[in-house]
Amino acid sequence: MTSDLHTIEDVAERYGLTRDQVIRKCSSSINPWPHMRPVERQADTWRFSDEDIEAIEQRIRVREIAQDSWGRTTSRSA
Length: 78
Known about the structure:
The chain is mostly helical. It has helices at 8-15, 19-27, 50-63; strands at residues 65-67, 73-75.
């Protein structure tokens, strides 16, 4: 059995995003954020498991590392 499920609002608050930004990240056709959607096309029913949260955090960490055109990694400057 999975542990607690998190709502869109929980995820938005955790990452300093708006509800709409979270929905856009989850419904993106390119590298969407993981989520569970029990009822198709009803964003209010989306839930995030603890494993989904870990996967989102991994994607955020990866985005903090830039790659040049040769595939070399560098840290992004703020």
